[in-house]
Amino acid sequence: MGLKGKVLGQVEISFHGDVFHEIFRERPHHVPSMCSTILGVEGQWGTVGSVIIWKISHDGKTKTVEDVIEAIDDEKKLVKFRVIGGDLKESYKSFIITCHVDSNGDDNFVTWALEYEKLKEEITEPLTYLELLLNMTKDMDDHHAKLKP
User: Fold this and answer.
1) What does the DSSP assignment read for the chain?
2) Which residues lie across from 52 on neighbouring strands?
3) I need a labelling partner for 44 at 20 to 30 A (CA). Which of 2, 15, 38, 79 fits?
4) How many domains is the chain built from?
5) CATH number of the domain residue 67 falls in
């Protein structure tokens, strides 16, 4: 394997994709109330250039991820984050997280893409981070399912 790579994962959600996109675009501070692996969110959000600091529980440890919103596309329901600080920077030279929601009628799918460049060959691919994002999405879906009448 090389130093650069990309991993993808997709989850179907039962609530409307516009709501999911809006949470990551404008209300990421609501995520900790829906998902136990996201411990806290600080910063500003809603516009390109906003910096967000996430406190997460990953592999049994509390970690931080500091990112900047690099792109927002409301039509495509896409938000792209570039990691600029925190624990991920200890292993990865670059790390980009893209969240895309695809809605077709009542079907809504969330796709997470992680593009990265490792600092050293022996560093593993970020599959556990992808798993964290997919599980977070499922937790958010469960949270919204409980709110349905």
Assistant:
1) --SEEEEEEEEEESS-HHHHHHHHHH-GGGGGGT-TTEEEEEE--SSTT-EEEEEEEETTEEEEEEEEEEEEETTTTEEEEEEEEEGGGGTEEEEEEEEEEEEETTEEEEEEEEEEEESSTTSPPSHHHHHHHHHHHHHHHHHHHHH--
2) 43, 67
3) 15
4) 1
5) 3.30.530.20
**Length of the chain (residues):** 149
> 125: domain range?
4-147
> What is the token pair recorded at 14?
């039962």
pLDDT in tens, 37-73: 999 999 998 999 999 999 999 999 999 999 999 999 9
The model's pLDDT over 107-141, given as tens digits with 9 standing for 90+, comes to 999 999 999 999 999 999 999 999 999 999 999 99
Do residues 86 and 66 lie in contact, with contact meaning Cβ atoms separated by under 8 Å?
A: yes
End-to-end CA, the chain: 49
